[in-house]
Design goal:
By secondary structure, the chain is of the alpha/beta class. It has helices at about 70-80, 95-105, 115-125, 160-165, 170-185, 210-220, 245-260, 290-300, 310-320, 350-360, 380-395, 410, 425-435, 450-460, 480-485, 490-495, 525-535, 545-555, and strands at about 10-15, 20-25, 55-60, 85-90, 110-115, 130, 135-140, 145-150, 190-195, 200, 230, 285-290, 320-325, 335-340, 370, 400, 415-420, 440-450, 470-475, 500-505, 520-525, 540-545. It has four domains: about 5-150, Phosphohistidine domain (Glucose Oxidase, domain 1), CATH 3.50.30.10; about 160-330, Aconitase, domain 3; about 330-430, no CATH class; about 435-560, Aconitase, domain 3 (2-Layer Sandwich). Helix 6 packs parallel to helix 7.
Length: about 575
């Protein structure tokens, strides 16, 4: 045994046998970052862009970004393009859950291990590795790292938990509880917690794996036992045929939505569930998935939820129980890094997605306390943009804004270190996300879903003027917002100018031909879509101000430039 590793024991989170070349990558969102058909990294902002993870022993500190990464991993397993094994340096839930579901439901083995820092560093320098349930060997046995099983004896279960686990509440509830416990064991939690509501992210059709999981759970008798909303889906449910969506995509996407509705979920179809009537209250324990929704619920509403991966969200809704870990606990809500932002006077709404994006880069693995914004008066839409952009670059389930968010004073008083985002860093960040051709083919609004106020802002600025030739302006919004915009005349004003408003799906799930075929350059106000869009669409996607978007809509052009508040 390598003497440097004699006391460096890792944990076999999902035990199994595998072998392959070692590929080391920085934290990565598999959804929007890895092609589920090939295993290739498609995130153009990631240093491993273009690398193949198929068949590799992938070493990654942790994952980040979307909760849908679990679905991408299952899709990769179905297609035979999954990593041979996943090895993390710290806690990781999203891909781990995908591996648990692959094993529990479909007998597809993707071993997952967690290593101490020193062992992870040593293994990162090796060329290949063999994984067994009790250890990892690399470079012809020169490196050996023992693995132990995750502890099972610390978790206290209620009588109701035992009944579900014994099958008294049916096969689906039993399977849901087994998956929940698989997650709880690797998290090292001591108890489960009742949740009052859930939000499903796994209803996005990323491929057959999502549909197979949902229909299998329905076949087994799954029914949600707490009020459960649904994320945006992958088609405009009522109109996809008229929009020209191919049946081979539209039909399974609609089937997936139908399966969740039949299991008792509300057909809300929005990635902004916090904007629905009766949002969660302060301190309420909820079981939400979808990264921006989780971060907003924790950070703005003061509700409590971990960032639950796809598939675990349904299991929690079926069981009404979740692992008592992460942001459910005070300790999991404390800010560990102070991020001071040197925000210029006069900053407008375009500052918030930029700040969220850069704060996520500055605090990729821990909850930040954002300082320097106490004098601002952000709107709910500003905070939505902040949370969504933060969720693309950080793995944390929440953030605090000094003087703005509910628990900033209580949970942000003992940060361990600090960084500063200077005005120059803000300008550099904007240039990085705004760069690209001046000519624009598509203006994309609504990632996350646009609010009624955002729809009104576009309608007011266009003021009935027609769009420029050969440009499209598309807003994605939830059903509740579309209904309200119809009722107050906003929709009529948007249609007068030629703006298209689409419900049920959002930019992170939109596909051609709803996404115009001829598009090469996209302008968006969303930091989230500016990050994920290039990999998802194959287009140049630029972050712009709302004024940039209106200029592009009316002229077909908006040159890359700093917003006025950054001059």
């Amino acid at each position: 045994m390598n003497s440097a590793l004699r006391h460096e024991e890792g944990i076999a989170v999902v035990p199994g046998i595998a072998a392959g070349p070692i590929v080391v990558v920085e934290a990565l969102s598999f959804w929007g970052g890895v092609d589920p058909a090939t295993g290739t990294v498609i995130d153009v902002h990631h240093p491993s862009h273009g690398a193949s993870l198929a068949g590799a022993v992938v070493l990654m500190p942790t994952s980040r970004g979307s909760c849908s990464g679990s679905g991408v991993l299952l899709e990769l397993a179905f297609s035979g393009k999954a990593p041979a094994a996943l090895i993390f340096r710290g806690p990781e839930d999203t891909l781990t859950l995908g591996a648990i579901v692959a094993s529990e439901m479909f007998g597809l083995g993707i071993p997952v291990a967690r290593l101490p820092e020193k062992a992870f560093a040593v293994l990162s320098c090796a060329g290949e590795a063999n994984i067994l349930p009790d250890g990892i060997s690399a470079d012809d046995g020169k490196i050996r790292i023992p693995l132990c099983a995750a502890a099972h004896d610390n978790l206290r279960l209620s009588p109701g938990d035992h009944r579900m686990l014994d099958g008294d509440d049916g096969v689906a509830a039993q399977l849901a509880m087994r998956i929940i416990l698989g997650m709880a064991y690797q998290q090292g939690v001591k108890a489960l917690v009742d949740v009052t509501r859930a939000h499903i992210d796994g209803c996005i059709y990323a491929g057959p794996a999502n549909l197979v999981f949902a229909e299998k759970m329905e076949e087994l008798g799954a029914r949600v036992r707490v009020p459960t909303t649904m994320n945006a889906i992958s088609v405009d449910y009522a109109n996809w045929r008229r929009q020209g969506v191919a049946p081979e995509f539209g039909e399974p996407a609609a089937r997936l939505a139908d399966a969740y509705v039949r299991m008792g979920c509300q057909a809300s179809f929005t990635c902004a569930p916090y904007s629905l009537p009766d949002p969660p209250g302060f301190g309420e324990m909820i079981g939400w998935s979808e990264s921006n929704a989780v971060i907003f619920a924790n950070s703005v509403l003061g509700a409590r939820t971990a960032k639950h991966p796809d598939f675990l969200d349904l299991c929690i809704a079926v069981a009404g129980r979740a692992p008592l870990a992460g942001a459910f606990l005070d300790e999991g809500r404390r800010a560990r890094r102070a991020v001071a932002v040197d925000l210029p006077e006069g900053a407008d709404s375009s500052a918030w997605p930029l700040i969220g994006y850069l704060v996520g880069l500055a605090s990729p693995d821990r909850i930040p306390l954002i300082k320097g914004l106490a004098r601002t008066s952000p709107t709910p839409d500003d905070l939505k943009a902040l949370c969504a952009a933060f969720g693309t670059t950080s793995a944390a389930a929440m953030l605090h804004v000094e003087g703005v968010t509910p628990e900033a004073e209580k949970m942000g008083c003992h940060t361990e270190d600090g960084v500063v985002i200077t005005r120059e860093a803000l300008a550099q960040g904007w240039r990085a996300l705004n760069g690209g051709p001046a000519s624009v083919d598509l203006v994309a609004i609504g990632s996350p879903h646009a609010s009624l106020d955002e729809c009104k802002a576009i309608a007011t600025r266009l003021d009935g003027r027609p769009l420029a030739r050969n440009i499209s302006v598309i807003i994605t919004a939830g059903r509740e917002v579309v209904t309200a915009a119809d009722a107050d005349g906003t929709m009529a004003k948007l249609r007068e100018s030629g703006v298209i408003v689409i419900r049920d799906l959002c930019w992170c799930s939109i596909t051609r031909p709803v996404f115009p075929e001829w598009t090469r350059v996209v302008l968006t106000t969303s930091g989230k879509y500016a990050h994920y869009g290039p990999g998802l669409s194959g287009c140049a996607v630029r972050l712009g101000t709302i004024e940039d978007c209106i200029e592009a809509a009316l002229t077909g052009s908006a040159p890359a430039r700093l917003p006025g508040w950054l001059w």
